[in-house]
Design brief:
Layout (H helix, E strand, L loop, with lengths): L2 E2 L5 E3 L2 H25 L1 E5 L6 E5 L23 H17 L6 E3 L6 H8 L3 E3 L12 E4 L2 E4 L13 E7 L8 H11 E10 L2 E2 L6 E2 L1 E4 L2 E4 L5 E2 L8 E2 L2 E2 L3 H8 L4 E6 L19 E2 L1 E6 L2
Helix pairs in contact: 2-3
Length: 291
């Protein structure tokens, strides 16, 4: 059975139960999402700014489809994906019954970061600013001094953090397993990793789109890019995660792994509404504890 928290999050600790929930919710999701597109959004509650208002959804270009997780925009700047992340974080903090003293998130220049900082005063934010920089460097940018960190080689010391977070970053690193091991390394025993990535329920195994071979980029499939707050050219997608990600988190050393299904039309948190099975993703957030 799912564990439903006071934050309204449905949390699952087995993949089979999560699959069942997705299957049961799928007809409702389609109905709500079609209505949202027809209406250009709908009213709801934003967990970020704490206001009730209208979530706006732009129409896709002809022949294209609208990603509702990256849409359903609140006037405060948060989209549906970001509100889902806040749902999962609030759920984790409720379960902990305390605020982690030290936390890091691998983003800094997004509308989500200030909302994370409100909840976690000891939070350190960073961006990936280029291959030539050393993690921990502070770079002067158009947005001021920004700390550079690589998820593959973060500068944080061993067992130095209570909470590590990365949201829609993992698909952009060339070595997912190394990134997960590094998160385990910098967490204290009992610490938590909270993360999201596009999670495609029809993919049993992760699809590799690109890789680094002896430092040389090799495209396995046609290049695909996602939005990047520090690079207008976008961030290259190295992989599309599948259900095997659950086991890969466990193999990185995390003893307890759960997934929060954050689908909630009232809060404007929907699926990506992709019409193609291998591209359809639900709003899920992983929470994994280091023993």
């Amino acid at each position: 059975m799912a564990d439903v928290s006071a934050a309204g999050v449905h949390r699952f600790e087995t993949a089979n139960r999560l699959r069942e929930a997705m299957d049961l919710l799928a007809p409702t999701a389609v109905t709500v999402e079609q209505w949202s597109l027809a209406q250009g959004g709908f009213p709801g509650y934003c967990r970020g700014c704490g206001d009730w208002g209208q979530f706006s959804q732009s129409q896709p270009a002809a022949g294209d489809w609208a990603n509702l997780m990256e849409g359903m925009m609140c006037s405060c700047g948060l989209n549906g994906r970001m509100r889902g992340i806040l749902m999962a974080l609030d759920d984790l903090l409720l379960r902990l019954g305390r605020i982690p003293a030290t936390a890091a998130v691998f983003e800094r220049l997004t509308p989500l970061f200030p909302r994370l900082l409100e909840r976690l005063p000891g939070l350190t934010g960073s961006e990936y600013l280029g291959d030539s920089l050393a993690s921990g460097s502070v770079v002067q940018t158009a947005w001021g001094g920004i700390r550079h960190e690589s998820l593959l080689a973060p500068s944080f010391g061993d067992a130095s953090l209570d909470l590590v977070m990365h949201f829609d970053v993992l698909e952009h690193v060339p070595d997912v397993d190394q990134a997960l091991r590094e998160c385990w390394r910098i967490l204290r025993p009992g610490g938590w990793m909270l993360f999201s990535c596009p999670f495609y329920e029809e993919l049993e195994s992760t699809i590799v789109r690109a890789r680094l071979v002896d430092g040389v980029l090799e495209h396995v499939l046609e290049p695909c890019y996602h939005g990047n707050p520090v690079d207008g050219g976008g961030a290259l997608v190295f992989s599309q995660p599948g259900w095997d990600l659950w086991e890969r988190v466990q193999h990185a050393g995390f003893g307890r792994v759960g997934v929060s299904l954050c689908f909630d039309p009232v809060q404007g948190v929907l699926t990506d509404a992709c019409p193609y099975p291998d591209g359809h993703a639900w709003p899920v957030v992983f929470a994994a504890q280091k023993p």
